[in-house]
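Predict the assembly for these two chains.
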Amino acid sequence: MAVTTQVPDLVTPTWDYAPAPEARTLATIEASYDLFIGGDFVAPIDGRRFTTVDPSTGEPLAEVAEAGAADVDKAVRAARRAFIRWSKLPGAERGKYLFRIARLLQERSRELAVLESIDNGKPIRETRDVDLPLVAAHFFHHAGWADKLAWAGYGPDPQPLGVAGQIIPWNFPLLMLAWKIAPALACGNTVVLKPAETTPLTALAFADICRQAELPAGVVNIVTGAGETGRALVEHPGVDKVAFTGSTEVGRSIQRALAGTGKRLTLELGGKAANVIFDDAPVDQAIEGIVNGIFFNQGHVCCAGSRLLVQESVHDAVVARLKRRLRTLRLGDPLDKNTDIGAINSAEQLDRITALVDAGQAEGAVMWQPECRLPERGWWHAPTVFTGVAQSHRIAREEIFGPVVSVLTFRTPSEAVAKANNTPYGLSAGVWTEKGSRILWMAQRLRAGVVWANTFNRFDPASPFGGYKESGFGREGGRHGLAAYLRTGADA
Amino acid sequence: MAGRLDVRKTYKLYIGGAFPRSESGRSYAVADSRGRFLANASHASRKDARDAVVAARKAFDGWSGATAYNRGQVLYRVAELMEGRRDQFVEEVLAAEGGGRAKATAAVDAAIDRWVWYAGWTDKVAQVAGSANPVAGPYFNFSTPEPTGVVAALAPQSSSLLGLVSVVAPIVCVGNTVVVVTSADRPLPAVTLSEVLATSDVPGGVVNVLTGHAAELGPWLADHLDVNAIDLTGAAGDTDLAVDLEVRAAENTKRVLRSPAAEPDWTATPDGPRRILAICETKTVWHPMGV
């Protein structure tokens, strides 16, 4: 809303939304944060700190401790000590701690949603309606597993692994924390978790929730920092299991680093999902699915439907409708309840997106963006559609991790499968058609860990999530996800 | 407390989320473990049983249609509210069962934890007991457990609260609704549990509690054609009754959970999802695969 310098025109309808900002004051942000080790907030040994900023303005939010190798060592030792009693606790009692955490998360969900939007830049509508409900649900679901592991299909008395070192990304900070911590704790492990350097605040708020739940000290330890902190955690000899969500490049280096150590590893890495639209697809639903698939969370989603494969006969109609829909998306203040697209999480990420968008144009694809004024401060990227994309283009091969969709075409179902699978990734895929048998035929052939049919970007704690090929290995969620945190089979 | 007379509670039935007296107007005296008068309980009749079945049937669509996650939260809420009334339950179980405060406390704690245990099963039983079936053809074929419908249950006669919870919770956790007949001689803790259920987001009619006699109400429920399954746990030790009810249940091929020879030790951890699956149907879906 512009500041009016003249008499406002109250007659001509603008059909615009009035601002509906959520109150920033719902979240308390400290000036400075310490590490959460052994149940206490402790200063980093060498005193180093870094700044986390609000990506929608670029303004600093707080100073956060940067954990060095000695801090990581302290955290792993705390987790080791806590493991002795935690792993021996009856499952029902472990479960009750997790139920407490789930309830505290539900109770504090509004505060946490605001905090997440401020630190990450994602719209409050998403943190409020997607992230936080899923976070609480994930703890609730896994709470119930803690005393039922004997029925999970991993033998009559499955045992925990020990200390899990967990590294999570910035795109769903608290949700990724939940995906990591809830199953680890339910199975009797203790954890040292490193949140992403650009989004540490909700993990530190979670540390407070652990204290409110009176979770035994050392069961959850949070070490903030960047790549070096992560490396120290991965390579620490006291860590029995590493769980990483992030880029394929870093995932590869972790897999190499763990070779020969005997440490268990699960990786949830990048993706370049195909979202396949057949000519009989329910078009209005499909358009919403496409939008949800790639513009949800600014496209900062590893399973985003970044390659839109449209059957040739409906290409023009689908693209036209997609463009019409994109003109209605609202980009801006993440805390405004009407905002659809928030800020890009960091300057570095914006640079990566911009570089790939430039490459797309240079390689001959046709770029389209809706008319969209970007705020002057902070990091933003307009929703972007590329048509005329060839499989060889970088924007069809590389993960952009931004609000950019590349449209390709196909003629036959077999061609759709071939193109969809023509990627080193294999995290997710989407299929849109009214024909059930075709959905299942496609699902059987798509080399991806999750296939969404006539929907996209659905998540549930009971539903296993994870990738094929270079999207990583291991699953998170449900009965299948427990395997990542239990000693099973040969290594029992 | 000298000088103040306590206000005593009227113990009523719990049907369709309301607390009616028995339509028959009957009641019976309930004594504590030493034979001293405690209160009059409503003496449920055939009509009450039939009303309860109607209420349970009415609640079935909503309850079985709720997400497993939602049912889990509701059952967990029952545990939360029971915890808040823990002392009251201990007093009532102690009065009903005798045997010392430590034992009564252990029974109440186990009853609370049992709700938590089954709250956790709601969204896991399908993953543990369901399957994708590799049929030899171009079909996607999967099987999932589903609730059977309205279940009539005879609660254990001895364990007034823990036993009743151990019978009721597995029935409702998967989406069935239940008409439960309490222990005849020890019905009062179950009525107090009804008050917890009424205030803990369990929709009215999902659990219906009848105080009275299994031998009187059992045949009406076993005969009832809108009851899909009957849990005879509370007939333990009464072989004649158990056999009679099983014979009656055959009329509409009710699923029957047979009674054990003697009432089991309810404090033991349940044997996985066995009780849940005993009152589940298995649904298998075929769908072709092909372009």
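Chain A touches chain B at residues 92, 95-96, 99, 137, 140-141, 143-148, 150-153, 413, 436-438, 440-441, 444, 461-462, 478-479 (CB under 8 Å). DSSP finds 15 helices and 20 strands in chain A.
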